[in-house]
Amino acid sequence: MHDTKRVAKAVLTNQLARFAPGMYMRLTGETGRGLGEESSGQVASYFRACFDDYFTRLGVAPSEIGTFLSGKRVLEYGPGDLPAVALLMVAHGAEVVVCVDRFPLMQLTEKNLAAINDLLSGLGAVERQRAESCFLRVGDPASGFNPDRIRYRIYPSGLSGLRDEIDLVFSRAVLEHVNDLPATFADMHAAMKRDAIAIHQVDLKSHGLHQANPLDFLTWPDYLWRLMYSHKGVPNRLRVNSYRLILAQTGFNVISIEPTLLADPADVRAARPVLALPFRQVSDEDMRWLGFWLVCGKKVN
């Protein structure tokens, strides 16, 4: 009875997300960060940490970030309700950041504007001047974002459509939500210049959709999962083995791919007998991966 109610509710809300995505996002209060209630200071701290994480993972020292980003054109998939990492990228030297999303999440709410001002106050004079150029009225976040610096684009496919113009691609907890991962990597590959780098943090957990076992959300049949969740941006459930295969097929050179969290082997053993068909051939080792960092570039022929 519990499962029947869950399926019925999920299917109905999935249709709401399909035909009225803006309404669905407002009703759910989705921000793209997956957090609960938070202060503007916490929002700002989150985005600073995200920005720092990318360059730590890339091996770029804080003193070298400006040189690394200088003049670069950057692409972000899934910026959520505030393109704050994009703002920091421009502040530290990027020429322009293109932000692409499937859903119209961006909101210049009072809290988000306060978070932007918090970010601005933490910048040096040069970086702050660059950041303030990101707004339609220089220095006024409430005026909205200047498309010469930050281009916020909503496409149902979540694809950029760019060709050979991007130097750096990044995302955080986004790729696990896309409906067509091969198409997303193909779009990314097409958008990147020959020497471009892509860096992504991928979260393979259930995002709250499991019950007793962190892997039991993989027991739902694929057709039923699509009926329940295909238009909501919830996890596509693909495991790390699928990412490796798609990367190889698309023509990426994997620089590094490292797990951020591993499931307990006991949870894998418990879930194994009842896994849905697409996951039965995934190795126990790959099934344990609940998240990872990926750094990759185009293969040079």
Q: How do the strands line up in the largest sheet? A: 5-2-1-6-7-9-8
First-to-last CA distance: 57 Å
Q: What's the main sheet like?
A: 7 strands, mixed
Question: What's the average pLDDT?
Answer: 93
One letter per element, helices H and strands E, the order comes to HHHHEHEHHEEEEHEHHEHHE
Secondary structural class: alpha/beta
The count of domains is: 3
- Percent strand: 15-25%
Radius of gyration: 20 Å
Task: List low-pLDDT spans.
Answer: none
Shape: globular
Overall number of strands: 9
The percentage helix is 25-40%
The DSSP helix count reads: 12
Topology of helices and strands:
Elements lengths: L1 H18 L1 H8 L11 H19 L6 H5 L3 E5 L6 H8 L4 E6 L8 H12 L3 H8 L2 E3 L2 E6 L4 E5 L11 E7 L8 H11 E12 L18 H8 L10 H11 L1 E11 L2 H7 L12 H5 E10 L3
Helix pairs in contact: 1-2, 1-9, 3-5, 3-6, 5-7, 8-10
Report on this model:
With 301 residues, the chain is an alpha/beta fold. The chain has three domains: 1-30; 38-154, no CATH class; 167-177 and 189-301, no CATH class. The chain contains twelve helices and nine strands. The protein has helices at 2-19, 21-28, 40-58, 65-69, 84-91, 110-121, 125-132, 181-191, 222-229, 240-250, 265-271, 284-288, and strands at residues 73-77, 96-101, 135-137, 140-145, 150-154, 166-172, 192-203, 252-262, 289-298. The longest helix has 19 residues, at 40-58. Helix 1 crosses helix 2 (21-28), helix 1 packs across helix 9 and helix 8 crosses helix 10 (240-250). A seven-stranded mixed beta sheet has the order 5-2-1-6-7-9-8, with helices on both faces. Strands 3-4 form a two-stranded antiparallel sheet.
